[in-house]
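Input record (one chain):
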Amino acid sequence: MNYPKTLEIRKCINKYLIRQVSPSDRKLLDFIKSSTKFWNFYRVKSLAFKILFGSLKTVSRVNSSYTQVWSKNQFPGHKNIKSKNYLLWRDEILEVRDWGEKRVHLLILSKIIASTRIKTYLEVGCGNGAMLMMLSTMHPDVHFVGIELTDQGVASAKKMQSLRNLPAGMIEFIPQKIKDASAFKRVTFMQGNAATLPFEKNKFDLVSTTLALEQMKAIQKKALKEISRVSKSYVSLLEPFPDFNQTKLRKAYTKGRDYFSIPTTRLNFFGLRVLSVFDDFPSKIYRGTAFVLAKKM
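The corresponding structure, as predicted from the sequence alone:
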C-alpha cells in the first residue's frame, strides 16, 4: 500500500500549521492537565449515565446531535471554521488550525483509492459529503456513494452539489491534482442507518468510514458486519481504535465520549483480514487515530 511519505504529509499540513510546540510549553502542559482532569471526570459521569440510561451513542442521540452539526457550514475555508488543535506526530507536537488534520486524511484516502484501483466506493457516515466531493475531483472515474444517518447531512451535501463549482476554500484544500472539477456533482448521497445498509451483498469495491464508527458504539458490531457484507473487496477504516489511545488523556477522552471500542486485532471476527495499519500521520493529542485497510475474507 502506497501511503504518503513524510515530506508529502509535511507539505500537506504546512499551510495549516500555526507553530511547532515544545513538549515543555506551559500552555500545552496546562491543556493536557486540565483536559485529562475534565475527561476523567466526564468518564465517570458518562458511566453513571450509561448505567441509568444506556449508551451515549444511541442512534437517536447521534442523529439529534449531528443534525445540529450539519445544519451549519462545515467545510474547509468557511468563515465559521475557526478551530485549532494540538496534533501529535512521532515526537513532534504541532498546533494546527481548522481542517489541517483532515487534509492529511484526504491525502491518505486518495492514495488508498489509487493503490486499490477501485471503481465503486461507499462512505458510511458521510456527514455533509465534503470529503467525498473533494475525493471525486481527484478520482472522477470512481462512482462515489455516501450514506448518512441525518437528513440534514444529506440535504447539506445536495445543496453543495447544486452550486456551479465547489467553494474556493474546498478547491484549495484538495491535496492532489484535480482531474475533473465538476465530478462532485456525480456523487450519490442517501439517508440510511449503518446497522441496516440498503445495498446488496458485495456491492462496492471499497467501503470506507472516516471518524464515523467512533459515533456508533451502540451499533458498532452490526455496523461492521454490514460494512463487510456490502464490500466486494476492500474496507478502509479511519477510526480511534483503542490500540492507539493508550495515554492517560486519550483513554479518558475516548472512554468519556463512549467511542468505538473494537481493536484492530478483532476485525477478523467481522470477516475482515487486515492488510495494513497506518498511523504515521498527525492525530489530535487527545484522540489517536489509525487507517486500517482490510480485505473481505
